[in-house]
């Protein structure tokens, strides 16, 4: 234990921030500008990081630097560590959105960004022009390991699920949605606009967040299909909600999709939005956070900002 503490004490923790920006920007000059140091200072920091890890980290390619395999592996870890450090040193401070440069990290689905992003970005620009927002896109593994991830970021936006039944977790409803079916306008298999479950079950499906032919417990669409009694013939699996309608367009495939997202893209992609049979459960999108942030002034402001953005959805 003493050896570990001594090792940490000998580290220049400023290198963490430089490592994060070098990985983000893949450019020494831009990373220097982000941190507020000179280009030679950033180059020196990169040299120190290379010696520490015994790896090039940034490797010259045809169009500039690319990440080494180790740097790719470190990318997520350094984001988590820096975000946790920023929250640690911001604890107890007053928060003034007009001048704060604090960064907030949220775990969200790309569907949430499509629905809420425009309103959130506008309010953030109006109320806190220097505050930074880091939106991390949800992955299946991150969504299931809620207890660990929720301590390392400011919150996540997701529907209620069994994985959220852990001590110290708070939530507030942001907005609601519902499931609809989407098919191409020229779908040759499904002629009716009021399909029943048997007709849907015969079609090929596009399903997001389904890593295999089983039903992952954390995937809302898979849970809904299970409730319907449909074991879909999955033609396309994809790690994105926004990609789903693009993979239905111009085909005979079908997908479940959130209604707000479906109506955003239906006209542009030539899709029919159909009522979903089988009495689907409503979608309730909530903000989840750890009770450690309850009295944090900055986090209180963030929760209010998200609530205001959600109200603009109607």
Automatic annotation (TrEMBL):
Keywords on record: DNA-binding, Transcription, Transcription regulation
Residue ranges annotated for the HTH lysR-type domain, each copy included: 11-68
Record has Transcription as a keyword: yes
Pfam annotation, one family: LysR_substrate
Molecular function GO terms recorded: DNA binding; DNA-binding transcription factor activity
InterPro entries linked to this entry: LysR-type_TF, LysR_HTH_N, LysR_subst-bd, WH-like_DNA-bd_sf, WH_DNA-bd_sf, YidZ_PBP2
Keyword Heme part of the UniProt annotation: no
Stated family: Belongs to the LysR transcriptional regulatory family.
PANTHER family per UniProt: HTH-TYPE TRANSCRIPTIONAL REGULATOR LEUO-RELATED, TRANSCRIPTIONAL REGULATORY PROTEIN
Protein name per the record: LysR family transcriptional regulator
